[in-house]
Amino acid sequence: MANDNDLFQVSTSARLAKKEYTRILLQAVPTLIFTTIAICIVVADISLRGLLDVLLKNGQFGIAFDGMEQGLDLGSLLSDVVDGSRSLVSLNLKGGH
User: Which candidate, 59, 94, 93, 64, places its Cα nearest to that of 78?
Assistant: First the structure.
């Protein structure tokens, strides 16, 4: 049986050859790509959260639909559709103005 020292090569120098540097860099590429993508996702998430906070605090937005001037309630219209007393087609839903 072989001696344990015969199975491994022990380096006598602390310096790495150019071939070893290249091999280490090539093996690190997937990890570097994953890390970069993960950091980009976190930064995008934080940015979007900040944008949503600004919109929530300062945004002037609303929902408008035909029939609001007559005092129709969207909740009651949708509950009528769920109950079956009104057809969804009869609501005549259409895109923005």
Answer: 93
